[in-house]
Amino acid sequence: MSNTAWETLSNQAIATAGIVYFLALVVYLAEWAALRQPAAERELVGAGGAADEAGEPGEPGGAPARADRVAFLGRLGLLLTAIACAAHLVGLVGRGMAADPNRVPWGNMYEFTLSGTFVVALLYLVLYKRFGLGWMGPLVVGFVVATLMVAVIWLYDAVAPLTEALNSPWLVIHVISAVIATGAFTLGGIASIVYLVRMRAERRAEAAGRALGGWLARVPQLDALDRLAYRVHAFAFPVWTFAVLITGPIWAHEAWSRYWNWDPKEVWAFITWVVYAGYLHARATAGWKGRKAALLALVGLGTLWFNFIGINYFSTTSQHSYAVERVVDAPAGTVAEQPSWRPLR
After folding, report:
1. Within a domain: residue 141?
2. Residue numbers of the domain that contains 250
3. Is residue 222 part of a domain?
4. Fewer CB atoms < 10 Å away: N or C end of the chain?
5. Cα(295)–Cα(258) distance, rounded to whole angstroms?
6. What does the pLDDT average to over 125-144?
7. CB neighbour list of residue 91: distance below 8 Å, 6 or more residues apart
8. Which residues, 6+ apart, have CB-to-CB distance to 45 below 8 Å?
9. Which helix (H) or strand (E) holds 335?
10. What is the DSSP letter of 323?
């Protein structure tokens, strides 16, 4: 296949992944809607009647039939997510094969965004059974769909050779660790957000003298959510440390003869590291759990994603904002590719 064919395949695969992710999101939302208890059934339960005998209007079996429908929609959503993730992988591989010479698909902001969202979806699928993450499906897929839309609409760049500073084995080592940590931190952040939402819903339900219902009833208990967030963050932090404080400085020294340049990306990556270090330290020494830990985790998530995307829009000095600018050589009538330090768009 030619480079153009590989690039076309990549674009088509990413478009397909986006469509299938969206279908998975619709199915997951239908699953959430099916978890809502019908009003007639709630009245019977409140009056002491058996929910299973209530029956929904026009549907025999009531709660059992609804449970079967919820289970089917959950399995269908998971299947669609797996199919979309496979198409996502094809898009990444095609992107790397479209370059001449072939390379890893991490040469610009668009490609890094594709990789980051792929890791989020992949980690969700890998951890799905171990941690019972069925409740997280619409949140993860919704995040992936929204981020892919941003990447395709605003961050897209045509395939181009790597700039000299990026053409290094450290690209693979540094970026893959940063991508894995970013995906894991994002999952941990989602768990922290759901923790705060469930905690507030429980307080309202308790004040109203009713049980927690709807999709939140399916979400794990607060202590389980808190434990899940901690475990995911504890996994991601050493990976981020390896990316930011070990491989990053080594690569910087190789490319720019300095281990630390006070580049905006470097500074914000270190700020993110400090916030997450504070999160884990507070949990281990001060006994921070629950709401305090969740809020601190969200601060870390905010600094992470600002560093990931925001720096490229608000900074004009970052040496991490690589791009390739095409310049026409008028006398020869040829097109040459030259490195540029403008922010990626």
Report:
1. no
2. 160-321+336-345
3. yes
4. N
5. 35
6. 93
7. 9, 10, 11, 13, 14, 17, 114
8. 37, 51, 54
9. strand 334-340
10. E
Residue showing tokens 């400085």: 249
Percent of the chain with pLDDT over 70: 83
CB 141 within 8 A of CB 21: yes
3-state secondary structure of 326: strand
Write out the DSSP string of 170-186: HHHHHHHHHHHHHHHHH
Residue 324's SS3 state is strand
> What mean pLDDT comes out for the span 60-70?
73
Whether 231 is in a domain gets the answer: yes
- What pairing do the DSSP bridges indicate for beta strands 334-340 and 323-329? antiparallel
For residue 296, tell me if it sits in a domain.
Answer: yes
Instruction: Give, in degrees to the nearest 5, the angle at Cα 331 between 329 and 333.
Output: 55
Q: Comparing 311 with 292, which gets the higher pLDDT?
A: 292
pLDDT value at position 65? 79
Q: N- to C-terminal Cα distance for the chain?
A: 28
What is the rounded average pLDDT of the residues 259-271? Answer: 87
Q: Give residue 38's pLDDT.
A: 55
| Beta carbons within 8 Å of 259's beta carbon, 6+ residues apart | 249, 250, 252, 253
Number of domains the chain is built from:
1
Quick one: angle between helices 3-34 and 63-98, nearest 10?
Answer: 160
CB-facing half-sphere around the CA of 60: CA atoms within 13 A: 0
Checking if the pLDDT of 297 tops 90, the result is: yes
CB 189 within 8 A of CB 297: yes
pLDDT tens digits, 149-169: 999 998 898 898 887 777 788
Is residue 83 within 8 Å of 22, Cβ to Cβ? no
